[in-house]
Write a structure and sequence with these properties.
Helix content is 74%, strand content 0%. By secondary structure, it is mainly α. Helix 7 packs across helix 9 (158-181) and helix 8 (147-154) packs across helix 9. The longest helix is centred in the last third of the chain and has 24 residues, at 158-181. The termini are far apart.
């Protein structure tokens, strides 16, 4: 069976309010969206709450999905926005660190430590970053948003996004080295 056709059927069913289509859509996308939520929330319990809230938004707003672009990309944006709203409501995104230039180069020791980490180990290091740093790191390095887009989404200056990303990278490098030393 053609996956695209199946996805289109699920979307059409969800737009009609078909509970079986909603359940199938949830089952198909929940693991990937839980991963997105976990990267922003930092803990599984909050991530599960964000997952439920995100799916409520998906089912409420699915009528607005036009069919242009990938559906999974559209869903990912809904979940990222849900996570950002949660972080903003809980003042987790207060960016109070002064802005200075951060080095863009990763030293050789950090680079070799990074190569020896598994994906799960790297995700644990990212999850250990403070909320603001983790959020900007995820948006820029993993989701692929530009610093200008992040600034608009988070209501901050573009230079703040750049600075926070640089600081997040520095902190992540230290966490990777510490993790490997344990």
């Amino acid at each position: 069976m053609d996956n695209t056709f199946d996805e289109q059927d699920l979307i059409a069913g969800c737009k009609r309010g078909d509970s079986q289509a909603r359940r199938r859509l949830y089952e198909q996308y929940a693991p990937a969206m839980l991963s997105v939520c976990t990267r922003y929330a930092g803990d599984r319990e909050t991530a599960r709450d964000l997952l439920q809230e995100g799916f409520i938004k998906v089912f409420t707003k699915i009528g607005g999905y036009s069919g242009s672009g990938s559906f999974s990309g559209w869903m990912r944006r809904v979940f990222v926005t849900t996570a950002l709203e949660y972080l903003r409501q809980n003042d987790a995104l207060k960016l109070s660190v002064s802005i200075d230039e951060c080095g863009d180069r990763m030293d050789e020791e950090s680079h070799s430590a990074l190569e020896s980490l598994s994906a799960d180990e790297l995700l644990k290091c990212i999850a250990a970053l403070p909320d603001g740093y983790r959020t900007i790191f995820n948006l820029y390095a993993i989701e692929g948003y530009s610093h200008a887009e992040i600034a608009r989404m988070m209501h901050i200056k573009e230079s703040s996004s750049r600075s926070q990303f640089g600081r997040a990278r520095q902190m992540l490098q230290k966490k990777i080295l510490q993790y490997r030393a344990e």
